[in-house]
Amino acid sequence: GSTIGILGGGQLGRMLSLAASKLGMKTHIYCPDANSPAFEVTPHKTVAAYDDEAALAAFADAVDVITYEFENVPAATAEFLAARKPLRPGANALAISQDRLAEKSFLASKNIPVAPHRAVESLADLEAAIDALGLPAVLKTTRLGYDGKGQRVLRDRADAAAAFAALEPKPLVLEAFIPFDKEISVVVARNTTGEVRAFDAAENVHRDHILFTSTVPADIAPGLEKHAAMLAKVIVVALDYVGVLGVEFFVVPSGERQALVVNEIAPRVHNSGHWTEAVCLTDQFEQHIRAVLGWPLGDPARMADVVMENLVGDEVLTVPTGIDGNTQPHLYGKTEIRAGRKMGHINKITRRS
Ligand code: ATP
Ligand code: MG
Ligand code: MG
User: Fold this and answer.
1) Ligand closest to the CA atom of residue 204
2) Could you report the per-residue pLDDT of 226-235, keeping only the tens digit for each?
3) How many helices and strands (H and E) does the chain possess?
4) Is residue 156 part of a domain?
């Protein structure tokens, strides 16, 4: 079997490691934090900083292929590793998806609809961007934001200066506020031979800016779901992508019908794809491992309707007494419960097909 190197030791790395293990593969987790949940599921580990060249070189020597579970892998780290072993998805996917502005420019260049936006490096830029886009609008850091951290909704011109000062790191991007009906996402996979398969779309609800539920099937027109899958496929082909990619969409009213705007992409397995482990012939974790190993992709067909619910903070304590026989819990083994921390999720089967 092969050894898959994984950068990042969070729950996504843990779930990738479990999926690889099921296929008889080893994983080697590289993460600076010794308390990472992924370390518990494999004996092969490196605890070191992402700029520790000796540790990175030893890691590259110990593995056959390298992937990652978070999009903020430093560019220098990606470059250093890619010179030694195949890095999948590639450094281009990382560079684009870790910078909201680069991401939006890339998507727009492929004729994929994104929110109207402007680069903001100064308060004067912000004033001009508000003139151009109107209010409300969403001011975001271009880098390092997640779970709504690193963004502010501007409703009033008077909000601008304080929001500009508060958001770090600069530069920022101002996006028009999209008055969406709902949010959906598609998890898509592409392998080394160019095979592409998409999972069904999930309908996502956020709570306190953190994903709360993903419901499948999404309550949208069948044509819209096909369109979302098509856009996701265009993105992975354009990136010459290998692995699983998450694509988040706003569903916006458009006359009698609805249209799609891409919010962001994530070059990794995605929280809104955790439902696949309960109800798909191949789940997103196995699909990512198959893709990065150069295997044929698995069938993503869905066997039941499902709602994935994140267990955030002490909600994890509702397991096992708060669940029933149609509910699959998946806990991440994190020892310290903190408010706002993703501790696990449950998949509730709502209808069997
Ligand atoms: P994630 O945890 O998904 O990576 P993030 O911090 O990268 O989140 P976004 O996905 O950009 O942030 O935004 C978080 C949420 O804020 C979106 O899912 C959406 O609900 C809302 N939002 C973001 N941008 C806009 C916008 N331009 N118009 C309306 N709502 C928005
Ligand atoms: Mg994001
Ligand atoms: Mg998002």
Assistant:
1) 1
2) 999 999 999 9
3) 10, 17
4) yes
108 lies in some domain: no
Tell me whether residue 105 is in a domain: no
CA of 264 to the centre of ligand 2 (A): 6
Distance CA 62, CA 51 (A): 17
Q: Which residue shows structure tokens 């420019």?
A: 105
Q: Give the residue numbers of the binding site for ATP.
A: 100, 140, 145-151, 175-178, 183, 206, 263-264
The predicted-structure confidence for 161-191, as pLDDT tens digits, reads as follows: 999 999 999 999 999 999 999 999 999 999 9
pTM score over 0.90: yes
Number of domains into which the chain is organized: 3
Of the three residues 87, 102, 136, the one that is the final residue of a domain is: 87
Contact 199, 188 (CB under 8 A): yes
Cα gap 156→126, rounded to integer Å: 12
Angle between helices 11-22 and 284-293 (to 10 degrees): 70
Tokens of 60: 């590259």
Domain with residue 11: its CATH number is 3.40.50.20
Pick from 100, 208, 209 the residue to mutate for probing ligand 1's pocket: most ligand atoms within 8 Å of its CB. 209
> In angstroms, how far is the first alpha carbon of the chain from the final one?
35
Identify which of 151, 181, 312 to mutate to test ligand 1's pocket (most ligand atoms within 8 A of the CB): 151
Among all ligands shown, which has an atom nearest to the Cα of 149?
1
254 Cβ contact partners less than 8 Å away, ≥ 6 residues apart = none
Distance, CA of 295 to CA of 279 (rounded, Å) = 22
